[in-house]
Predict the structure.
Amino acid sequence: MTRYLNLYGYFLKQRFKILLEYRVNFFIGASSSVFMQGASLLAIWVVMRQVPSLNGWTLAEIWFIYGLLTLSKSINHMFADNLWTLGQSYVRTGLFDRFLVRPIDPLFHLLADRFCHDGIGNFLVGLVLVVGAAPELGIVWTPLKVGYLTIAVLSGGAIFIALNLMTSVSAFWVMDSVPVIRVVFEMHEFAKYPLAIYPKAIGIILTWLIPYGFASFYPASYLLQRDISPVLAWAGPLVAVVLLFVGYRVWLFGLRHYSSTGS
């Protein structure tokens, strides 16, 4: 474990050296996601000006849920965005072969090969939303709540990574895995809002099939002291561990069936 942490630090250092060669481009990339999120938030604000409450949920509460999901998504964006490019940039070009001849785990090498700085902007947006909405919602940040928030965000990030990992493995057969990843990934858009506003079927899907609800709605409900089952409130870390285990097993299955392009 220590070896891989040291290696990741080395990869990260080299990545920042590359990114900072063009500093203006680095800051544009890091801030571009802020403007993209701003457009989405503006749309929500416009809607909530006309409809002050969505099934009993206020604008500040929706900001809070949105912020939690954005924090979790930013972890995936920063540290596992390379999963999106597995087919196009590595399998199709034959560059994936180099991961197989080096004395480190191929999945680790794939993830460490690229840190996506665009995710920094998403992280800042999520943090501002969560911290900014808290006073209006009467949330007092005790050590327990801060610890819970940290665990919830890390668990949510792991859920995003695990789901992207499972779908990215399709690149070993179809070369371009982006459409497959997107089918599952875009479901997170529903989790930006309270699951209570959707039909029951949507809530079941986002809880038990594609569980983005554990990255936003359930931890938000706990911190807002909404009526929620303690099992759902604290299940996020367990769901993340199970999905990571399944995702890694799916990855190993795909790896066994990988055949080089020969280029």
